[in-house]
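User: Can you help me understand a structure? I only have the sequence.
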Amino acid sequence: MTIPLPDVQFGWSDVFDILLTAALTYYLLLLIRGTRAVPIMLGLVALVVLLSVANVFHLLVVATVLQFLLLGTAVTLPIVFQPELRRLLEQLGRGGMLARPEASEEATSLEEVIGVLARAAVVFARNHTGALIAIEGATGLREYVESGTRLDARLSIELLLSIFMPGSVLHDGAVIVKGNTIEAAGCFLPLSENVVTEAHLGTRHRAAIGLTEQTDAVVLVVSEQTGTISVARDGKLSRELEDQERLSAVLLACCRAARGRRQPGTAVRLRFGRRRLPSDAGGLAKPRA
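Assistant: Let's start by predicting it. Here is the structure, written out as tokens:
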């Protein structure tokens, strides 16, 4: 038994069309890599899969609800992906789409990174120097990196002290750390609006809470006025971390939790909550709109 095949015309234009589409898809994936767009896209794929399953099994009510969800999502996509769309247009204008992609960072010791951050925080607290340091988790922070000054420098306590030195141009912004690299300094972070009971929180603390509400980053905050060291994660703030050993343990546990790894042999109790803090006069001078 032979199955008749349709007469398909396949020429060089079709080959070029496929290759161009593959290249465009590849660069779009590079564009959203390391940003919040990745989990959003995965969520959209999950909705499409659920809608297909509902249609196969004739689940009319579920299919209708999912269709309305997808329709509403499609309307809001330009707003959600505004940073990525802006970056795409900028790269097209500069010819950056043809640039060589950045090499992936080598695996680094998280313990060494946390040790440097903890030592720097203790020095900042002793000198009452305000600091705001975001440690990137699984969710990329590229859109916030681009709001500051790109450094791509190896993390060191000397560099951190130079960045947050009073009078420094980058003093009032946030530092973003990825692996053992300081990606950028002087970055703008989103301010939290969910601190009604703590309206007197400094801008640094509100920025730390705001970033952790939207991403899985861990943020280290040092108050300029009181010298208090705090750690923000999942939209909550923890204090009483002036001891370097305890601060290192808390940071290490938070970073491993953000990366989906358990910390073996650690009995540190993490007490995160919205506590009342004194005002931080040394907050960010440039809050993000």
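Now, to help you interpret it: The domain at 110-258 is CATH 3.40.1700.10 (YojJ-like (1). The two ends are 69 Å apart (CA to CA). Let me know which part you'd like to focus on.
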